[in-house]
Amino acid sequence: xxxxxxxxxxxxxxxxxxxxxxxxxxxxxxxxxxxxxxxxxxxxxxxxxxxxxxxxxxxxxxxxxxxxxxxxxxxxxxxxxxxxxxxxxxxxxxxxxxxxxxxxxxxxxxxxxxxxxxxxxxxxxxxxxxxxxxxxxxxxxxxxxxxxxxxxxxxxxxxxxxxxxxxxxxxxxxxxxxxxxxxxxxxxxxxx
Length: 192
Hints:
Layout (H helix, E strand, L loop, with lengths): L1 H24 L7 E3 L2 E5 L14 E5 L9 E6 L6 E12 L5 E5 L3 E4 L3 E4 L4 E3 L2 H9 L1 H54 L1
Antiparallel strand pairs: 1-2, 2-3, 3-9, 4-5, 4-8, 5-6, 6-7
Helix pairs in contact: 2-3
């Protein structure tokens, strides 16, 4: 029963490690995870409360249509610090089939590549953002994902080395027993 529990715990841990690694590999230039048409936004403060609270994970669909008068998340690239903001769209201008320019309140004109998606179609998962922010941080990934795998690897390598050493000692012992037996047989033949 103990092996089954260990196996289940290891499987859950491995799944979490793989998911977090894939999420980190999906980081874009703005340090937001993008998986296909979806962006995973971690809410890190209460600035957008009560609709979006600190610790929430917000899943945005880039393919959802953003209309005039709607609030949408966008990358604010107007200052040195690139951040995700929420603003109301006051005007949309379709440039071609794949490109739309949005004008946000405050006369911010942005290409559709800088818009994550509308707020009204966003999926919100409470508290999961806090968990992911720890797992995706440098130190969190190091201590929760890398170190346990390193310790497990060292443990397995030591077991393999121990088994090799044990087999080597057993082969030396068997060889010594054969030599003793051979010497005993040779002495017995000499006595005859």
